[in-house]
Amino acid sequence: KKTASKSTARERAPAPEVRLSSPTKIIFPDRNITKQQVADYYKGVAPHLLREIAGRPLSVIRCPDGVGKACFFQKHHTAGLEIVRFVRLKEEAGINANYLVVDDVAGLMELVQFNALEFHPWGAHADDPDCADRVIFDLDPGPGVAFAEVKRSAAHVRDLLQQLGLQSFLRATGGKGLHVVVPLKPANDWKLVKKFAKGFAEALAASDPDRWLATATLKLRPGKIFVDYLRNGRGATAVASYSLRARAGAPCAVPLAWRELAALKRGDAFDVDATLARIKGRRKDPWADIDTLRQDLSAWG
Ligand code: ATP
Ligand code: MN
Ligand code: MN
Questions:
Q1: Cystine design at 214: which of 36, 171, 201, 254 (Cβ 3.0–4.6 Å)?
Q2: Cα 68 to averaged position of ligand 3 atoms, centre (Å)
Q3: 120-169 pLDDT, tens digit each
């Protein structure tokens, strides 16, 4: 209740209505979920999702013909978008490109109209793209790793971070794994963030090589959890909390309180309905403090 009413002036401004074409088109065939229902979901979670994506360079996964058909990952602004703005940023090759930036509900709904299903922000803001305000440890279980083991690993990462004086936040990805997210304030240079994330992952792997994998290989290793620290680099993205996933069952990425970890059954435990019900029923946003904590990595410079 508290977070929903604490909207910014932008969110309160009357949003231009985006007309939704093909509202009856089926997007999740296994659940008979239509484009209208996807739009209704995103309207429902908009204030919460916007806290995660507003003002950040954003990639989307678009599925024009629904899940199970061709979907594509889009980083750049394209013709036809009128509400969604862009920020011109230097890419790795040194060439400039126009990155998508959403500021408000109208922009979000315009991307939904363009069949965006998943939202993947940078860990940085469009006006400060060279500094990260989030470190993300993406725990990717290889074949044969039980979810209980993924949970144990996430708790271990949390404890190690705590020992370094860093508070972290838990996310069920809506997929196979979990994310452990460390907010940074003030934001830190990507170089430092990358160095920290890589060092942390490599130390984990060295401490228990049978359990952890910290090297980026094309394939996940059976029985091991890949600590994907590569989410931490300029231009890298990770799925936003409250994003739908273009996967069977219409699962969502969901922010959790650490005390909820014990009861969690899977990374994709929350579908559209469960996610909306969770927001309605809860007393407090489990990530309420994420933007107010002040912690940074300058000690690791
Ligand atoms: P899971 O829990 O199943 O691992 P996840 O969201 O963590 O879910 P990953 O495969 O571990 O999925 O992470 C892939 C990340 O890489 C995505 O979150 C996305 O932001 C980023 N990414 C970069 N390029 C692409 C691409 N072409 N297609 C999909 N994801 C991409
Ligand atoms: Mn992952
Ligand atoms: Mn990954």
A1: 201
A2: 21
A3: 999 999 999 999 999 999 999 999 999 999 999 999 999 999 999 999 99
- Domain 2-129 matching CATH 3.90.920.10: the answer reads yes
How many angstroms does the Cα of residue 231 sit away from the middle of ligand 1? Answer: 9
Instruction: List all residues whose CB is within 6 A of at least one atom of ligand 1.
Output: 73, 120, 138, 140, 173, 175-177, 228, 237-239, 267
Q: What angle do CA 133, 167, 122 make, to 5 degrees?
A: 25
The ipTM is 0.96
For the chain, the structural domain boundaries read 2-129
Which one of the ligands is nearest to 266 CA? 1
In this prediction, what percent of the chain has a pLDDT beyond 70?
95
